[in-house]
């Protein structure tokens, strides 16, 4: 029988590279934890209707990319393609918006599933860290989220990313613009799918990447010029806050994003080293989403950053994260008695919080030292019968190569002292 392979469009995270993924998740989460966001975890699947309504019937995500299925019990479910609808559903279900001061600020980290054409940076199973601030309309909140994402990327050492910023208007000005745009689009030479999109969600046609569509869009009515006074002022405030905090951005009137629920502020983080899968993260304000899924009016804003593409961005910039070695001390016993003794030393070290590992499988000195080397450990403890008879072990500094005898009874404290 041949060995099984991971399903198409998926890949495994394995050591040592998996450490980078964990570090990226950590780095994105750290500024959120530090800014009043509480951790939320929701199921990997939801009622399919939640996404149909919450993400939008006309989006690629719902029409083409969703893993939807019927259970044996007859429930219609879908693997989650994104996080916002689930997080808002969870907040509404638990009435978090009634329990304290708004906004409710939440962050999450997990796996998402989209049936897409797999390619570099585009997978069927991928990972996001996201943040949502639910129930408040305040330009400072929009700015906060953009600043925190910027801070996260910078803390990782990324530099070649840009922030694209736009405003999509609200329920006052968006419908007026929508109609104007529809009128314009109906006069173009478009395929049947796109014509249908013109009727359901015309703004998304602006986002069409195909050159034959883009070419026809010159002269389309301008969204920016159609914003109502309130949206214009709100957007201006977001822009000024970002500028004051030294976060630069590019105004991009064409930035629409693939989800139906966005209003006002929308933004995307793009990285210049990633080729066509250049978006590393995106988000925006979704003032109407709560009502779309049966809740009260709860103006909200959020983002999701892709972990996979962030790792690719690090590679593209040649950034190597300064990750601590997973093992500080490696024990190499020579002989049966030494195995017992050093196993005890390793256990003691671990209980003290020192990262320690052990040469299992009874290899000889040479093989075991090779493993010790590969572990990245700063120190090796080596002991044979003769050492133990003298009540000592050999402590080897793996960096300098220096080796010195240390009393067995003192080795744990000696290592702790040297490592601190
Ligand atoms: P794209 O335009 O590249 O399809 P998107 O607009 O569908 O991206 P979002 O739904 O905004 O992406 O998700 C936020 C982030 O999640 C993206 O910026 C990206 O980093 C990541 N992401 C989305 N889909 C995938 C995927 N199929 N594989 C890997 N990462 C993804
Ligand atoms: Mg997509």
UniProtKB/TrEMBL annotation:
Enzyme class (EC, first level): ligase
Start and end residues of each Aminoacyl-transfer RNA synthetases class-II family profile domain: 1-324
SUPFAM superfamilies linked to this entry: Class II aaRS ABD-related, Class II aaRS and biotin synthetases
Molecular function, one GO term: histidine-tRNA ligase activity
HAMAP family: His_tRNA_synth
UniProt similarity note: Belongs to the class-II aminoacyl-tRNA synthetase family.
Name assigned to this protein: Histidine--tRNA ligase
């Amino acid at each position: 029988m041949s060995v099984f392979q991971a399903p198409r469009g998926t890949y495994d995270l394995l050591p040592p590279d998996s450490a980078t993924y964990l570090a990226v998740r950590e780095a994105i989460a750290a500024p959120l934890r530090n800014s009043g966001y509480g951790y939320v975890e929701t199921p990997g699947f939801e009622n399919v209707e939640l996404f149909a309504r919450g993400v939008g019937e006309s989006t690629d995500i719902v029409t083409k990319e969703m893993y939807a299925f019927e259970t044996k019990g007859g429930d219609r479910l879908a693997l989650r393609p994104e996080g916002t609808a689930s997080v808002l559903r969870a907040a509404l279900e638990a009435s978090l918006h009634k329990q304290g001061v708004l906004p409710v600020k939440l962050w999450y980290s997990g796996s998402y599933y989209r049936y897409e054409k797999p390619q570099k940076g585009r997978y069927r199973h991928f990972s996001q860290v996201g943040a949502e601030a639910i129930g408040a309309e305040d330009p400072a909140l929009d700015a906060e989220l953009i600043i925190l994402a910027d801070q996260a990327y910078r803390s990782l050492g990324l530099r070649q990313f840009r922030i694209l910023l736009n405003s999509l208007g609200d329920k006052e000005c968006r419908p007026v613009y929508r109609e104007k745009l529809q009128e314009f689009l109906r006069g173009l030479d478009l395929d049947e799918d796109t014509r249908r999109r013109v009727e359901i969600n015309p703004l998304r046609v602006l986002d069409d990447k195909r050159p034959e569509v883009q070419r026809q869009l010159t002269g389309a009515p301008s969204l920016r010029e159609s914003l109502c006074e309130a949206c214009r002022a709100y957007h201006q405030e977001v822009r000024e806050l970002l500028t004051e905090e030294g976060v630069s951005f590019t105004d991009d009137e064409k930035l629409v994003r693939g989800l139906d629920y966005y209003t006002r502020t929308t933004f995307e983080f793009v990285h210049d080293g990633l080729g066509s899968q250049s978006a590393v993260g995106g988000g925006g304000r979704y003032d109407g989403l709560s009502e779309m899924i049966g809740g009260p009016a709860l103006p909200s804003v959020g983002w999701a950053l892709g972990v996979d593409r962030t790792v690719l961005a690090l590679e593209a910039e040649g950034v190597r994260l300064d990750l601590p070695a997973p093992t500080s001390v490696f024990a190499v016993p020579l002989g049966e008695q030494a195995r017992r003794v050093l196993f005890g030393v390793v256990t003691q070290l671990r209980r003290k919080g020192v990262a320690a590992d052990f040469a299992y499988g009874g290899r000889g000195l040479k093989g075991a030292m090779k493993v010790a080397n590969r572990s990245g450990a700063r120190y090796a403890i080596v002991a044979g019968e003769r050492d133990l008879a003298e009540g000592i072990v050999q402590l080897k500094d793996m960096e300098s190569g220096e080796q010195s005898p240390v009393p067995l009874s003192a080795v744990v404290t000696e290592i702790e002292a040297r490592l601190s």
